């Protein structure tokens, strides 16, 4: 590529990243405004996240009943973390930051589920609430840990942690996008 083509590509990449960051920032704001809301579980990413969640139950099932229940939520957060590590190894900090944002979003996605452990009112896979079926992961996990009475508090903490991760990842991604476009222009 010529210098002019490199500059044009760098400009398009920079603007694509800015648009992506603006969209993720808006989405992050929406999650912040509605803590522990089912809105998080109705977001676009909930369905892809759910695939990893359900796979986690199967993958962790050889490790016993507790890890089978925890494995869904664990895998849901681990997948974007593994993707972030892959981007870091490829020296792609912007991509890594977006995956870290996704990990935080998964925590926000899990928070209402955790907070529902006692009331069992969330609609689960299959169209029934936790009260109508046996098998609410976080009811089982928190009961086993003798923390069921803290479900709301733990849900709020997980939501807050997810938000901090999302905001931090967006800040890092923005910094990376600016630095990356500067380094492309200088070469």
Describe this structure in words.
This protein has 187 residues and is mainly alpha-helical. It has one domain (3-186). It is 74% helix and 0% strand. The chain has helices at 3-33, 46-60, 65-89, 93-115, 137-144, 151-186. α2 (46-60) packs across α3 (65-89). The longest helix has 36 residues, at 151-186. It is elongated and about 60 Å long.
List the helices and strands and how they pair.
Elements: H1 3-33, H2 46-60, H3 65-89, H4 93-115, H5 137-144, H6 151-186
Helix pairs in contact: 1-6, 2-3, 3-4, 3-5, 4-6
Brief descriptors of the model:
187 residues, mainly alpha, disordered C terminus
How many structural domains? 1
Radius of gyration, taken over Cα atoms and rounded to an integer in Å: 19 Å
Mean pLDDT: 87
Number of strands: 0
Question: How much strand content do the residues show?
Answer: under 5%
Structural class: mainly alpha
Please count the helical segments. 6
Shape: elongated
Distance between the termini: 12 Å
Low-confidence stretches: 182-187
Helix content: over 70%
Element-level helix/strand string:
HHHHHH
């Amino acid at each position: 590529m010529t210098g002019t083509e490199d500059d044009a590509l760098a400009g398009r990449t920079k603007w694509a990243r800015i648009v992506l960051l603006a969209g993720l920032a808006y989405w992050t704001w929406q999650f912040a405004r509605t803590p522990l809301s089912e809105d998080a579980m109705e977001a676009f990413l909930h369905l892809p996240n759910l695939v990893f969640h359900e796979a986690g139950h199967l993958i962790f099932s050889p490790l016993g009943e507790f890890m089978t229940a925890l494995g869904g939520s664990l895998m849901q957060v681990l997948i974007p973390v593994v993707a972030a590590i892959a981007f870091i190894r490829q020296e792609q900090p912007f991509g890594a930051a977006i995956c870290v944002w996704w990990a935080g979003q998964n925590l926000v996605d899990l928070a209402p589920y955790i907070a529902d452990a006692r009331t069992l009112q969330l609609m689960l896979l299959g169209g029934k609430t936790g009260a109508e079926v046996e098998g609410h992961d976080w009811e089982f996990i928190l009961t086993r840990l003798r923390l069921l009475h803290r479900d709301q508090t733990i849900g709020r903490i997980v939501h807050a942690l997810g938000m901090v991760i999302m905001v931090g990842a967006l800040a890092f991604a923005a910094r990376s996008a600016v630095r990356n476009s500067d380094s492309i222009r200088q070469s």
